Amino acid sequence: AQTVTQSQPEMSVQEAETVTLSCTYDTSENNYYLFWYKQPPSRQMILVIRQEAYKQQNATENRFSVNFQKAAKSFSLKISDSQLGDTAMYFCAFIPGNTGKLIFGQGTTLQVKP
Amino acid sequence: GAVVSQHPSWVICKSGTSVKIECRSLDFQATTMFWYRQFPKQSLMLMATSNEGSKATYEQGVEKDKFLINHASLTLSTLTVTSAHPEDSSFYICSAAGTTRETQYFGPGTRLLVL
Hints:
The complex is a heterodimer of chains A (114) and B (115). Chain A has no helices and twelve strands. Chain A is mostly beta strands and 114 residues long. In chain A, a hairpin with a 6-residue loop joins β5 and β6. With 115 residues, chain B is mainly beta.
């Protein structure tokens, strides 16, 4: 089965602090793409960061970075210098092989506190 | 990034009526479009995948006769909820992809309330 698990339903962090959101996945595919999406209260899905499974180097995008552990099938998201605008629901997702089908985790609601 | 629009953003309808939701890629040609359903505070569930000019592929458990999908052009896909019932009330989101299907651009979603 192809699944994504986010074990933290809710998290909170103080403004300017760092927070890490966990994600594990399961697939028998060797080639796949991993994503973190942000869904603010507007419910618009926003791509935060993506990682190709064949790349060993962890992706970074400004304050956002990932820790990709392929053997452990782990793909955590680190948000540095958290801002109030980071408050949102965060979804970990992946596309197995060339299916194009995004499989989402359950989501983690992140609250950034002033 | 590319822009995807959805119309309407909000719709309320009576039970038994049909509702059509449009998904448009505004500045690129979408070879593939995806339709998702999201209940409050839950994840997105893929309903179906549509490729321009061909029949949609539905995920297991999704009634294709109830959720009609048409992808007649490279910039437009429509989802029609036929004979809507209150349990069809949900948030429907589309995404569009060009030739590289791992890059999907999401629409803003449509809230459907069936009374």
